[in-house]
Amino acid sequence: MTKQNKRIVVVTGGSRGIGRTICISLAAPDTDIYFNYFNPIDPAAEIAAAAETEKLVADAQSTAISKSVNIAVEKEVAGFFDEILEEAGRIDVLVNNAGITKDGLLVRMKEKDWDDVLDVNLKGAFLCTKIAARAMMNQRYGRIINISSVVGVTGNTGQANYSASKAGLIGLTKTTAKELAPRGITVNAVAPGFIETDMTAALSDKARNAMLGQVPLGRAGQPEDVAAVIAFLASESASYITGQVIHVSGGMYM
Ligand code: NAP
User: Fold this and answer.
1) Residue 203 neighbours by CB distance under 10 Å
2) N or C: at which end does the chain have fewer Cβ atoms within 10 angstroms?
3) pLDDT tens digits, one per residue of 72-97
């Protein structure tokens, strides 16, 4: 099968956590997966993590190609997508997954911590969507899935920047869904609750127990719980669903 006949999937932040599991869940022999990652503090660890995702995708008889790209920087995003389009010629699925936290109470939050979180979580998704949408409009087909969060709907003490970015992603999802629907492109958001990844491993026991206390199902979710919904939204079975926010949170928000 030539690249032109393949299903092309792009996942931001695919080296670890939920993003890695999304890559694995979308892996198939007829699919090529491009993903990025960005950790300037520990480049060796990020390269090793990306290589592990590539291996796990290969184990599923698929191909993954990864690159270190800061999605908050337009030039880097443009270069990443140019390479994909040059090589693969199309983009069928974009999952805007990459995200960071820089928590703190609002009155103590530094401007940089606000900007960094908004730049990665919200502007990054905007930049990737803008480029991928152009290719999808030409194809008259596409699936865009944004990873929001339950706190984008409920708010969360200590996460003014993060919850604002995740609420912003919901607005971006709904507007993009309206603008792109006439071209056969669906855009949806998934709002995870408390999922076991490096991001939540960084929480104190107190914060962790407080979060778990809000989960009616009484347990943390796994990346697979989120990835299963993304696989559905990316599939043909979800072709009549757009502009929606699907919560995967054990009932944290109802
Ligand atoms: P994670 O384990 O911390 O992984 C984050 C991923 O994003 C990594 O691959 C990281 O790359 C990448 N990344 C970070 N900054 C980037 C940048 N500027 N450019 C490109 N890639 C970047 O996080 P996670 O828990 O899997 O979360 C994935 C998504 O789900 C995030 O959007 C998060 O907000 C959302 N979410 C998570 C939870 C949860 O409970 N875990 C709940 C709700 C929503 P490196 O490996 O190079 O650092």
Assistant:
1) 15
2) C
3) 999 999 999 999 999 999 999 999 99
Q: Contact at 8 Å (CB) between 14 and 97?
A: yes
Q: Is the CB of 186 under 6 A from ligand 1?
A: no
DSSP alpha helices (H): ranges in the chain? 17-26, 43-59, 74-88, 111-118, 124-139, 151-154, 160-180, 198-201, 205-212, 223-233
Residue nearest to atom 11 of ligand 1 (CA): 37
Say how many Å lie between the CA of residue 99 and the centre of ligand 1: 4
Full strand arrangement of the beta sheet holding 185-192: 63-68, 31-37, 7-11, 93-96, 142-147, 185-192, 245-248
Tell me how far the alpha carbon of residue 55 lies from the centroid of ligand 1, in angstroms: 19
| pLDDT, tens digit, 9 for 90 and up, residues 139-192 | 999 999 999 999 999 999 999 999 999 999 999 999 999 999 999 999 999 999
Q: What residues are annotated to the active site?
A: 162
* Per-residue confidence band for 1, with pLDDT thresholds at 50, 70 and 90: very low
Q: Is the CB of 99 under 6 A from ligand 1?
A: yes
d(CA 204, CA 90) in angstroms, rounded, equals 43
* In contact, 42 and 67? CB cutoff 8 Å: no
- Regarding pTM above 0.90, the answer is yes
**Cα–Cα dist 246/226, whole Å:** 10
